[in-house]
Amino acid sequence: MSLSQYRALGRSGLVVSPLCLGTMTFGPGEWGADEATSREIFRAYREAGGNFVDTADIYSGGASEELVGRFIKEAGARDEIVLATKFGFNDSSSPLTASPEGGGNPHAGGAGSKNIHRALEGSLKRLGTDYIDLYWMHIWDGVTPVEEIVQTLGDLVRAGKIRHYAFSDMPAWVAMKAATIASERRVPGPIAMQLEYSLVARGVEAEHFPAAREAGMGVMPWSPLAGGFLTGKYGREDTSDKGRLSGANPFGDSKFTERNWKILDALKEVAAELDCAPAQAALAWAVARPGVASTLVGARTARQIESNIAATELRLSEDQMERLNAVSAPEESFSSSLTGPAIRKMLYGGHDVIGLAGLGAPPSRARGS
Ligand SMILES: NC(=O)c1ccc[n+]([C@@H]2O[C@H](COP(=O)([O-])OP(=O)(O)OC[C@H]3O[C@@H](n4cnc5c(N)ncnc54)[C@H](OP(=O)(O)O)[C@@H]3O)[C@@H](O)[C@H]2O)c1
């Protein structure tokens, strides 16, 4: 597989690479890359055939969008690139940008129509373009009715300002409700979900993956290397001065848990068998998971992105996939417990009936772990 083995994102005609270039690192910041390095990362991704670039209005306080827009212009590649950006976080209170103690404008965040229109105008200006290919709701705000979100984003599709829209970091029911409203009303609906997903974060398999499959949405994992943890550069004894996770983790949770160290041990074994870096094996695992449409890859240096792109050439054997699935298996949740073979036998007179495309079973079950 190479970056130019394009696939449609969800049930849409938007054709994207199996790895999407994440640009959260572009711009100033503790774990960011300066303009020259960001340009090298962008160039390395493009030279490998990549066509899919992801940014957000809040990344580096808007600098990421400015850099991405500049690089696309320099490359003269606006028509070839699928340009994705996001709205939602309040530009005056995000933990990723300067944070005044309260007093911010409540209309400068969330998924209400007023903010979406404001945020989109800002992104178009910073990106130096007049349309966005894929516009993401960055995070569910817990307030705006789903009907308003579908109406606002659908109208923007019809106005030609965005080509498609999608949801990141939301409960599965929100995406499902939006998809249902859209299909019932014959209006544009969300085509993808962007979710934290990696060998150490598989919680979304129970609810989100089946919802995405049912609604025709492609899943895009973010932090597939768990912010660098799955590169293997951190060790149980020494987690200092290695990279982003050595400092305060902006996403709150620590990756340095006993469970995660065990997963990393198994990953290193598989990587040694394949004679590759653990990061490459971790990416190959994510790319191969059923339902995954395109995986976001982030990098702080061009060398990192080049090494990560090489993961698309790797194939994990069935045995290697199963070992990694087993050591990283998520705890059973209420909904995943409903779809197991024991329950199906109770329903079907002792037969373990398999539904269409493994319907009802989360991907881990469908793969036998
Ligand atoms: N929707 C959301 O809420 C959300 C949240 C987070 C991210 N995202 C998107 O997903 C993208 C990827 O997320 P992420 O950056 O967290 O992904 P990640 O792949 O889990 O982590 C990337 C980081 O790991 C380290 N790394 C990567 N490759 C390496 C290698 N080969 N060797 C050593 N270290 C390596 C680098 O950090 P260091 O060198 O500093 O260690 C790099 O910045 C972002 O750019 C963004 O577009 C979305």
TrEMBL record:
InterPro entries in alphabetical order: AKR_Detox_Biosynth (IPR050523), NAD(P)_OxRdtase_dom_sf (IPR036812), NADP_OxRdtase_dom (IPR023210)
GO MF, one annotated term: oxidoreductase activity
Q: Where is the composition biased (Gly residues)?
A: 101-112
Q: Output the Gene Ontology cellular-component terms.
A: cytosol
Every NADP-dependent oxidoreductase domain range: 18-327
Top-rank taxon: Bacteria
Keyword Transmembrane included in the entry's annotation: no
Q: Where is the signal peptide?
A: none
Segments of this protein annotated with the region Disordered: 94-114
* UniProt keyword annotations, A-Z: Oxidoreductase
Protein name listed in UniProt: Aldo/keto reductase
Organism from which the protein derives:
Pseudoroseicyclus tamaricis
State the organism's lineage: Bacteria, Pseudomonadati, Pseudomonadota, Alphaproteobacteria, Rhodobacterales
